[in-house]
Design brief:
Elements lengths: L7 E17 L2 E16 L3 E5 L6 H8 L7 E6 L2 E2 L5 H8 L2 E4 L13 H11 L6 H14 L16 H13 L5 E5 L7 H18 L2 E5 L3 H7 L2 E6 L2 E7 H6 L4 H9 L4 H7 L30 H5 L5 E2 L11 E2 L4 H6 L6
Parallel strand pairs: 3-8, 3-9, 6-7, 7-8
Antiparallel strand pairs: 1-2, 1-4, 4-5, 9-10, 10-12, 11-12
Helix pairs in contact: 3-4, 3-5, 4-5, 5-6
The chain binds iron/sulfur cluster.
């Protein structure tokens, strides 16, 4: 039975993931890709995740869909901990969380036609038996993503980038997932078709009640598609809250700098002014700074910031503030109250 609206469908708690890389200074370097991230998602809700390249967004996405195992932490899907599940139960739970990949040019096997591509998950999980049922289900899925069912015998190279991403979405929908994790789903597409794919995902989410995790570095796309927005920096969450709150009254200096650099968030730009700039590149994830990981680039950094790691906390936003603005910054109230003056 599908979850009812508002029901908790995904609960990720304190996820950690570290990779070994090549040698640095005679030692094997380790990259802390995700460091203590927790997220909750309810049925029918959309959560955007933004941050610079290398901030851990894609590693987080891969853990949520079961393509990577976290080193520690737990991921509950519909109340079952999938990080501890094994064998058939693990596969069954992960059917409920599916992924739309970034690049529709490489994520679809060029030797398979659309019928085979879209029906593959159905066949692997024995959801259909017989050719007619398979074709009917693929036709239904293609219609859902606004592609003509007659195209099912064609191959990926016969489609445009936007059409290929629709095929990828149809494939992701084949098992009736409760959560769709979209990892930069439009960044490989022309600007002209990005909006069509984003609108399709938003429409599917509303019509089918799917929960959506939408990962992107383009702030305008995330704003359009997300009920809540999370901002990541060097493997950690910097800020999470209602999208309108995060965009119109950001409290973390990193969120403010991201928005200030974006040409699309006009209202926020006026408030923040051009004085909030993000200096330099992020530090190497093999040697992240102690304390607040953002302190080497933060305009508000003080001695405490280099020493003490800020924890995520709900900040007091005053009588007109939103209830759920959660920020990892020692001085978030000050930053939120007067972002420009504090520069
Ligand atoms: Fe900046 Fe300090 Fe806040 Fe980190 S804790 S974002 S360094 S003010």
């Amino acid at each position: 039975m599908p979850p009812s609206s508002g029901e908790l469908v995904l609960d990720a708690r304190d996820l950690h993931k570290t990779y070994r890389t090549g040698r640095a200074g005679g030692h094997r370097a380790r990259v802390s890709a995700v460091d203590g991230v927790s997220l909750r998602l309810r049925a029918g809700e959309s959560l955007g995740i933004v941050g610079e390249s290398g901030c851990g967004k894609s590693t987080l996405a891969r853990m949520l869909v079961g393509l990577e195992r976290p080193d520690s932490g737990r991921i509950e899907v519909a109340g079952v901990d999938v990080t501890r599940a094994r064998g058939r139960e693990r596969r069954r739970m992960h059917q409920r969380v599916q992924m739309v990949f970034q690049d529709p040019y490489t994520s679809l096997d060029p030797r398979m036609n659309v019928l085979d591509l879209v029906s593959e998950p159905l066949m692997v999980h024995r959801r259909v038996t017989g050719g007619a049922a398979r074709r009917d289900r693929v036709a239904e899925l293609l219609s859902l993503v606004n592609l003509a069912p007659e195209l099912m015998h064609r191959y990926p190279h016969q489609f445009s980038g936007g059409q290929r991403q629709r095929i990828g979405i149809a494939r992701a929908l084949a098992l009736d997932p409760e959560v769709l994790v979209c990892d930069e789903p439009v960044s490989a597409l022309d600007m002209s078709v990005q909006a069509q794919v984003v609108n399709l995902l938003r429409d599917l989410q509303r019509r089918m009640g799917i929960a959506l995790v939408f990962i992107a570095h383009d702030l305008s796309v995330v704003r359009h598609v997300s009920d809540r927005t999370a901002v990541m920096y060097l493997g950690r969450l910097a800020e999470i809250g209602e999208t309108t709150t995060v965009y119109d009254a950001p409290a973390h200096p990193y969120t403010q700098a991201l928005l200030s650099a974006s040409p699309v968030v006009d209202r926020t730009r006026r408030r923040l002014t051009d004085r909030i700039r993000l200096a330099g590149d992020p530090p190497s994830p093999t040697a992240p700074p102690a304390g607040c990981r953002f302190h080497t680039r933060c305009r508000l950094a003080r001695e405490r910031c280099a020493r003490e790691q800020p924890v995520l906390r709900t900040i007091d936003t005053g009588p007109d503030g939103a209830a759920d603005q959660v920020v990892a910054c020692h001085f978030a109230e000050e930053s939120r109250a007067a972002p420009a003056e504090a520069a």
